[in-house]
Design a protein that fits this description.
Layout: H1 6-36, H2 40-79, H3 84-92, H4 99-126, H5 128-137, H6 140-175, H7 177-182, H8 186-238, H9 244-283, E1 304-311, E2 321-328, E3 333-337, H10 344-352, E4 359-364, E5 367-368, H11 374-378, E6 381-384, H12 395-399, H13 408-414, H14 429-441, E7 448-452, H15 460-474, E8 478-482, H16 486-489, E9 494-497
Parallel strand pairs: 3-8, 3-9, 6-7, 7-8
Antiparallel strand pairs: 1-2, 1-4, 4-5
Length: 499
């Protein structure tokens, strides 16, 4: 994944240095024009150069932000193991929030170091008393900003968590809307979404309230600090203790010393959500497999052991699975039952390598699953998900996906799809489910079948056809079945309940 590289930091430093030089030159020339009338052309050129520098800085920072966002999206889509809804919210909406951090806060942070130092250096030669006042009051702004910023950070994290929860839950509800309507639960879920959206709105209002109050604090501190410099200089000018040009120089440079810090504080609030998103993006990644890539044991002769397995998804308080232990013998067919959310589908995802245990191990024979060559391991698996994905093309092409040598006609006939093999018209949910089952049993090289509620959308007659086909296919092979319907439980050797 592409991080903010050194070249970007060097570029920001050069831009900040040039900004500091132009700030000093503009103040010097403006003081000269106001006091003596000389240097107007140079002043106009300096102002134009400063505007050009601001434009160039915007171009550089916007391009860097766009590159980092694109790279993060690729990284998340390739490596994420988070829930689908939360991942979608993060990729589609969340990553846009890091632009104010990369293109706003970071550049301003560098400027807030370079410009005040340059101003202090210049004023120490022009009027050391004013320079001393600025040096004493300048730290007040970052101190107050840090105190308020810690509170803002916590508020923003809660706001992002609320938005991720709303987005993730809403996507899951939309995907399962037909099922919810079938069981009369659509209105209940609509109320849940409305409640979650209201909670997110409340968190957003609280976050904005803190941002507005903190802006008031920073403006007040900066204004009082400038007044502490301006009032003594004005009194000294009246009594002849300082020349007009020096007094003008002090009055012009003093606000410039505080302005970058005030802007950095404002940019911090704008970028706080981006920081929360970056933290989430770093968590929502698949743990790296162990460096060793061993040959996958033959599942016809190897047991599968879940050893104190815990699966914890990012951004969820409770683990999906806790301290789970199970041993599946070669050729054994095991059904997993339990309420929704007990971790049944997570177990199948762990075997597929889509998620990894946060603690514990999955052993194939005596080898940790993470040590196995994943491509070789997946060749031994046939998987039927709850919501199968079909691609444009005929039913035959979808069944043969990933297994060109498959006997498509036999697999289609086994699940009652032989009349639809050459068609490419839209399929019903039950037909799509049967295509997924046919795709699995067509993989003759697979040694283990993973079924995630394979008959949930089938009527009783079609369910019997599918069960007969899977019964034949699993003879002598290992099978792990997530089951809710009683008919599936008669096809297995053992039932394991998850709570």
């Amino acid at each position: 994944m592409r991080h903010v590289d050194r070249r970007y930091v060097v570029t920001l430093t050069l831009l900040a240095t040039a900004t500091a030089i132009l700030v000093l030159a503009q103040a010097e020339l403006l003081a000269s024009v106001l006091s003596t009338g000389a240097g107007l052309v140079l002043l106009i050129a300096t102002i134009a150069a400063r505007a050009l520098l601001v434009w160039a800085g915007r171009v550089v920072t916007q391009r860097e932000a766009a590159s980092v966002k694109a790279d993060l999206r690729k990284h998340l889509l390739r490596n994420s193991s988070g829930p689908t809804g939360e991942l979608t919210t993060l990729v589609v909406k969340g990553l846009d929030a890091i632009e104010p951090y990369l293109a706003g806060y970071l550049p301003q942070l560098v400027v807030s170091v370079a410009v005040p130092l340059a101003v202090l250096a210049r004023l120490s030669f022009a009027d050391w008393g004013s320079a001393l006042t600025i040096a004493l009051t300048l730290p007040l702004i970052p101190v107050f900003a840090a105190l308020v910023g810690m509170h803002t950070r916590d508020r923003t994290r809660r706001q992002w968590s609320a938005m991720a929860a709303v987005g993730g839950h809403f996507l899951d509800v939309v995907q399962g809307l037909s099922t919810l309507r079938l069981f009369g639960r659509a209105e209940a879920q609509a109320r849940t979404v409305r409640a979650m959206a209201a909670a997110h709105a409340d968190e957003t209002i609280r976050t904005l309230r803190v941002a507005f109050l903190s802006a008031l604090v920073l403006e007040l501190v900066a204004t009082l600090s400038v007044a502490l410099v301006a009032v003594p200089v004005g009194l000294r000018l009246l009594h002849g203790g300082v020349t007009l040009q020096v007094a003008l120089l002090v009055l012009l440079l003093a606000p410039e010393a505080y302005l970058p810090l005030r802007a950095a504080g404002a940019q911090f609030h704008a970028s706080a959500e981006g920081l929360a998103v970056l933290e989430q993006a770093m968590k929502t990644t698949r743990p790296k497999p162990l460096a060793i890539q061993r040959r996958s044991p033959d599942l016809r002769r190897s047991s599968i052991t879940f050893d104190h397995v815990e699966i914890h998804y990012p951004n969820r308080a409770e683990p999906a699975l806790t301290d789970f232990n199970l041993q599946v013998a070669p050729g054994e067919r095991v059904a997993l039952i339990g309420p929704s959310g007990a971790g049944k589908s997570s177990l199948l995802a762990a075997l597929l390598g889509e998620v990894h245990p946060s603690s514990g191990r999955i052993l194939i024979a005596d080898t940790d699953l993470r040590e196995l060559d994943r491509t070789e391991w997946l060749r031994q698996l046939a998987w039927v998900p709850q919501r199968p994905t079909l691609f444009p093309g005929t039913v035959a092409e979808n069944i043969a996906l990933g297994a060109p040598e498959a006997n498509v006609q036999a697999a289609a006939q086994a699940v009652g799809l032989n009349d639809l093999v050459d068609t490419d018209h839209p399929l019903s949910s039950g037909e799509r489910q049967r295509v997924a089952v046919a795709r699995a049993i067509a993989r003759d090289s697979a040694r283990m079948l993973l079924l995630d509620e394979p008959t949930s959308r089938l009527d009783n007659r079609t369910e019997e056809t599918v069960l007969r086909a899977t019964r034949e296919w699993t003879r002598g092979r290992t099978a792990l079945v997530v089951a809710h319907r009683p008919a599936l439980l008669t096809e297995v050797d053992r039932v394991v309940e998850l709570r």
